Amino acid sequence: MLIPQFYDRSPFVDVLRKELAQAERVDIASAWARASGVGLLWNALTDLLERGGAVRAVIGIDRENTSIEGLEMLLKLQGQVELWVRHNEASSIYHSKLYAFETATHSRVYIGSNNLTGAGLSANEELSALLIEPKGGPLQASVATYMTTLVDTADNLARPLNTAFLKKLVSGGYVLPEARLRGKSARTRAASAKAEALFGFKAPKRRKVPPDLLAGPIEPSPTEPSADWKRVFVKLRLARGTQGQLPVPVAHELRRQLGETELDGPIPIILNNAERVISPTFAQRSPDHANTYKIEMRASDEDPVIKVELVGNRVLVEQFDTGTPAGQAHLRYILDGLHTDPVQTVSRGVPKDGTRQEIEEAAKGVTIYRYD
Known about the structure:
Radius of gyration: 25 Å
Number of helices: 10
Mean pLDDT: 90
Shape: elongated
CATH class of the largest domain: Alpha Beta
Low-confidence stretches: none
Distance between the termini: 44 Å
Helix content: 25-40%
CATH architecture of the largest domain: 2-Layer Sandwich
CATH topology of the largest domain: Endonuclease, Chain A
Number of strands: 18
Largest sheet: 10 strands, mixed
Structural class: alpha+beta
């Protein structure tokens, strides 16, 4: 039997909830997992565990699609829970999507395209096939063999998931916050927008996780840039004529992209073809965390705008003046980010509403920035 999921009906999450309600155990093999998906099944999973059932899940972390919050939520499950993470450093992608249920009488197995994510379970157009067989038959045996193979530790491709190992995954950059991952997909869609639409537009009726199940925000925000950003545009103000102050979050993002393990530290740059250093400064009341990053620039008649670009492991910085056509183009791009959905420009005190001249006037002397 085929189980389709279309953009506006038949969410696969409803099928899985019904299966969990009558199951004694479930085995999940999913390439990706996010809180937006785990949360949709949370009540059904916890009900299964509370009545003595068992849950085993093997989650992949390839292509920056599994989130920190998704793995954290799985770790909060209580009872007979066995969690694994699978990854191959040789870049072979773990891409399975399997949901296998055992009831008192049958094995019921769904194999298809639905990942354990909000989009995979409720919004994307997906397809799974249902296999049914009496319990104790070849289908149940083949699922057991497959899952045992997935968690075989002989080749070190599978590791048990616990809090300590999740911390290693985070510090090693294997998994990222969900907002960044969703921001990445939103940015990809915006970049691929066509001049003329050739197809219909049908917004999916995405199921959302109740906020009380989430430890933090999973929606994109301008302060949580997409994981693959390469440039950031900053309109800043100068102190004493030539000293600019790079926003601390931008400096931290640069260091993260450069693979630095320490949160704060100097950032070597090439500014207008000259080698410079962006230097952190520390306040006495907080000597362990930088309160600003300073960069020496040339004097500017108007507010300066800089384009900070990552080229390999080098940071290239170009300075523009908002009084010039090039500077105006960069400023316009930053200000346009106040009106995107989701908002992509980080600003304080700059209103979204008003004429362009009024918004530009409000932005004078204010540091605002936008990742790209």
